[in-house]
Amino acid sequence: MTDESTADDGQSDNDTAATHAVVLDYLAHGHPDDDRPQYQKSPLAHALAETDFRLYELTLDTDDRVGIGDRLTVTPEEARTAVARSRSIEFDDLTRGARQELEYAVAEVVEREERRFVDFYNDAQPITLRLHQLNLLPGIGKKLRNNVLDERKREPFDSFTDVEDRVAGLHNPEEVLVDRIIEEIREDDLKYRTFVNREE
CA torsion angle for 166, 171, 177, 180 (degrees, to 10)? Predict the structure, then answer.
């Protein structure tokens, strides 16, 4: 587990944009590993940040009940509603229920913010002389990468359907991104990360 986050967790003093997170699991009686008496425990939620896919454990105000899939404001502090405190956690800290919801939550964010993720196919750049950001995606080797680069030179992609229609061999470009995001969330030792912000 990582350290308690501050109110502006991961944001500069001038950055007032709210960070929203999707609830993956709701623990009405606090964490099951917490041995304190019930009256000392607050309800918790495990949640996924929509902007950088950071995982959070949120301590909730006792009067606010939330459900799986709800969107909560994590930062800044003045914008919060149900969240009393937040701290970043790792994949291994998630409850079993939260792990089961993770892929659905990531897919929902990618679908809702299609423009943002289609632009990854438009804007991805080389990482080294031999490695391109596109090659980090599951199933994309040199040939598919070059097909994407050739097509986007002709005209930028405007939707996932456009990517799939124009790039021969690239099926379900949305699902490919979801798989990579899940990998970046789960794995501690990846050398390169494109979508997920992890605290060191």
Answer: -130
Domains, the chain: 19-111 (2.40.50.140), 114-186 (1.10.150.280)
Q: Cα 16 to the chain's mean position, in Å?
A: 20
Q: How confident is the model over 142-186, as pLDDT tens digits? A: 999 999 999 999 999 999 999 999 999 999 999 999 999 999 999
Report the predicted TM-score, pTM, of the whole model to 2 decimal places.
0.84
Which DSSP string corresponds to 156-187? ---SHHHHHHHSTT---HHHHHHHHHHHHHH-
CB 134 within 8 A of CB 140: yes
Q: Is the dihedral of CA 178, 183, 186, 190 positive or negative?
A: negative
Count the neighbouring beta carbons within 10 Å of the beta carbon of residue 121. Answer: 24
